[in-house]
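Predict the 3D structure for this chain.
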Amino acid sequence: MEKIVLLYWPKGGSVDKSAHLIYESLKDYKIDIFDLASFNLENIQNYDLIILGNSTVGAENWEDADNNNLWFSFFRELKKYNISNQKVALFGLGNQVLYPAHYVDGLGFLYEELKPSNVNVIGKWPTKGYSFTDSEGVEDDHFYGLALDEDFEPELTQDRINKWIEQLKKES
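Done. Predicted structure below.
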């Protein structure tokens, strides 16, 4: 892994906390971290690996009209840049207990938005060991990226991050 950027939204809460845990676990690499509001998208092509992180929230929060969700403007602007030679890794947060039918659906949103860019998504994560009934973030028994549940499994977060980073090292 050469130069890495870690971008996340929303700011604050579990996504922010998890992004910083990932950042700290990669501190021996050339890594920059930004919440989406602080990142200048013109710099996206300066990175070899792009890590994106989000949470799964209610459908009303994913509507374009919601000014609090910067992902829509991010992906609209991203179309101006050629990132097809870059690798992308995803992480998402969800709640398996209260929302088992929508666990880490946000990973699916990120993945679908990235598909037109023809990027190489790395770091797909096995669903084994999770308890949920459905997810837009799953394909063939793997999440599109690292799935974290800070509400009901915070004790597993750091170990999952460590294993995911080892996987990213092998895939990049």
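Helices lie at 13-25, 71-78, 105-114, 157-171.
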